[in-house]
Write a structure and sequence with these properties.
The protein is mainly beta. It has one domain (about 5-260, about 280-290): Lipocalin. The chain has one helix spanning about 15-30; strands at about 50-70, 70, 80-90, 90-95, 95-100, 100-115, 115-125, 125-135, 140-150, 170-185, 190-200, 200-205, 210, 215-225, 230-240, 245, 250, 255-270, 270-285, 285-300. The strands form 2 sheets. Strands 1-3-6-8-9-10-11-14-15-18-19-20 form a 12-stranded antiparallel barrel. A 4-stranded antiparallel sheet has the order 12-13-16-17, with helices on one face.
Length: about 300
């Protein structure tokens, strides 16, 4: 089995090789989390209090290159992730505001190909949190909410595998600020989310200490209601930040990523919804680049 650092590079720069090794291994550890919290069209329009929502997700992503400073520097590379997510959301009110206490449980499989294969199967870090709607104006169809999640380091983790784990062995915090506005009543909606991710330190990362800077993401959606049973959407995601520090040394691998997704949502029954999304990365400055992503979701309201 070949190690991450024995890939065929287009450059002999030792500093680039070291940087690439960290970039790839950290990317593996975050592959299981990608898309777990990211919003989809329609996610931030509130449901009636008393609703309970059970969701099952399947997310498949294929990555065929690693970029450093915007340039592809690998050959014969592949990183595939197959992630399942179980999620439960309870809609209620608190102090006159709609809130949604919820739990997210990811699990799945990672496969890294670099002539020889490395795989990992297990559970990701569970996340608990809630949204609160500070504005819920159904007449003008505009909604403003704040969401908070905490990622608990309880997922599958083997320090010897470094980034090839489903769990991250660190605490994680996520805050989202969401705005939804009807552009054409009952038909066309604009949605925007600002997300902030912060991370604790992983003190057992293959014998080293790993710290990651905060990540910031802009998520935008344009959603069109075709009829009562069908909606389509187009989404754009822009991510920056997240430079890694290994034993206190900055790796100069700050993220800058652009991605798009196309969404179709269909109500099989008034309480059972199916959603399919497909898309890919448009640009990645540092890290693995997705050539294809497919997200499937089944949601049942009780």
């Amino acid at each position: 089995m070949r190690t991450l650092c024995s890939l065929n590079f287009r450059t002999d720069s030792l500093s680039l090789v070291k940087k690439l090794c960290v970039t790839v291994t950290v990317a593996c550890s975050t592959a299981a989390q990608a898309g777990v919290v990211s919003t989809a069209p329609g996610d931030n329009e509130p449901l009636p209090a008393g609703t309970e929502l059970g969701l099952l997700y399947y997310q498949h992503a294929e990555r065929d290159r690693v970029n450093v400073n915007g340039h592809t520097v690998t050959q014969n590379f592949g990183l595939d992730s197959d992630i399942g997510i179980a999620r439960f959301v309870h809609w209620t009110t608190l102090g006159g505001f709609t809130v949604t206490p919820q739990i997210i449980l990811p699990f799945g499989h990672l496969k890294l190909s670099a002539t020889g294969d490395q795989t990992s199967t297990g559970f990701g870090d569970p996340m608990i949190g809630s949204a609160v709607w500070l504005l819920n104006d159904t007449d003008k169809e505009r909604y403003f909410s704040i969401v908070g999640f905490i990622g608990v380091p309880a997922g599958s983790y083997d320090a010897a595998k470094a980034g090839m784990n489903l769990g991250e062995n660190r605490w994680k915090g996520v805050v989202e600020v969401n705005w939804v506005q009807a552009l054409v009543s009952k038909r066309l909606y604009g949605e925007i989310t600002f997300e902030y991710d912060t991370f604790g330190k992983n003190n057992n990362y293959a014998g080293a200490a790993l710290r990651q800077d905060n990540i910031y993401e802009l998520q935008t959606h344009l959603r069109y209601v075709m009829d009562p049973a069908n909606q389509v959407g187009l989404s754009y995601y822009h991510t920056i930040g997240g430079e890694n520090h290994l034993n206190g040394i900055a790796q100069q691998d700050t993220l800058k990523t652009d991605r798009y997704m196309v969404t179709w949502t269909h109500f099989l029954t008034p309480r059972l919804q199916f959603q399919a999304q497909a898309g890919q990365d448009l640009y990645v400055r540092n890290g693995t680049q997705e050539k294809f992503r497919l997200n499937l979701r089944l949601a049942r309201a009780f």
